Amino acid sequence: MMISETSKGKFITMEGIDGAGKSTHLNWLADFFRSRGKTVVVTREPGGTRLGERLRELLLDNYQTMHGETEALLMFAARREHLDKVIVPALDQGNWVISDRFTDASFAYQGGGRGLPIQKLEVLEHWVQGLFQPDLTLYLDVTVELGRQRTSAIKTADRFEKERDEFFQRVRECYLERARKFPQRIRVINANLPLEQVNKSIEETIISFCK
Ligand SMILES: Nc1ncnc2c1ncn2[C@@H]1O[C@H](COP(=O)(O)OP(=O)(O)OP(=O)(O)O)[C@@H](O)[C@H]1O
Ligand SMILES: [Mg+2]
């Protein structure tokens, strides 16, 4: 696998708990770059490849039980495939890649949410991606209450969404902790605000990133 020094495109990831607005703003972001002449590949995790999407179905299936470590391993297995088949080839061709979730989500959900030791996740991270990291991560920070309000209106809960508020509280705290740990890469966007305002702050962040 080729690693980022040789890449010409940029890799941007969107993170946040369910209902933060990742999908909504991701589409806007893709249009923003396309209108500036970039070729953009939009993808998501878990998923992004044929195998990854099949793993996603299992991971989100309410009737599927699994050990927390199995969950983490499947997430990273899907990611290995995603990097190999989609992300790295696209970056090598000079495309911009925007992913709806990436490795920060494994730390937040399997680490923060499920309570797996961070060191174990770091082993998987290193195994699957070496030193490769997104060029920029937009973390859309929303309260658990508001996130839940936004998603419950539009779909039935999947295997993660049916978790209790405490679970999402831990996920959110873990995301915020990572944002403090990697302030250069992870930008926190206040996603509790109305759509237009969230959009404005994403736009400002992106414009300063592109300078
Ligand atoms: N800032 C906002 N103000 C009001 N509504 C919003 C805001 N952001 C998103 N929404 C609405 O909340 C719903 C969930 O947003 P979206 O699907 O983008 O979230 P998500 O982060 O992708 O969630 P999931 O992780 O479940 O995919 C959508 O109906 C969207 O229009
Ligand atoms: Mg979404």
TrEMBL record:
- Pfam families per the UniProt record, alphabetical: Thymidylate_kin
The record's SUPFAM superfamilies line, in alphabetical order, gives:
P-loop containing nucleoside triphosphate hydrolases (SSF52540)
Q: Which key words are in the record? A: ATP-binding, Kinase, Nucleotide biosynthesis, Nucleotide-binding, Transferase
Q: For this protein, what reaction is catalysed?
A: dTMP + ATP = dTDP + ADP
Q: In the UniProt record, which is one GO cellular component term?
A: cytosol
Q: Does the keyword ATP-binding apply?
A: yes
Domain Thymidylate kinase-like positions: 15-202
GO terms in the biological process aspect are:
dTDP biosynthetic process; dTTP biosynthetic process; dUDP biosynthetic process
Record's InterPro entries?
Answer: P-loop_NTPase (IPR027417), Thymidylate_kin-like_dom (IPR039430), Thymidylate_kinase (IPR018094)
Give the binding site residues for ATP: 16-23
Q: Which top class of enzyme applies to this chain? A: transferase
Which top-rank group of organisms is this from? Answer: Bacteria
- CDD domains referenced in this protein's UniProt entry, alphabetically: TMPK
Give a yes or no for keyword Plastid in this entry. Answer: no
According to its UniProt record, the EC number is 2.7.4.9
Q: Which HAMAP family match?
A: Thymidylate_kinase (MF_00165)
Family label: Belongs to the thymidylate kinase family.
- What's its job? Phosphorylation of dTMP to form dTDP in both de novo and salvage pathways of dTTP synthesis.
Listed name of the protein: Thymidylate kinase
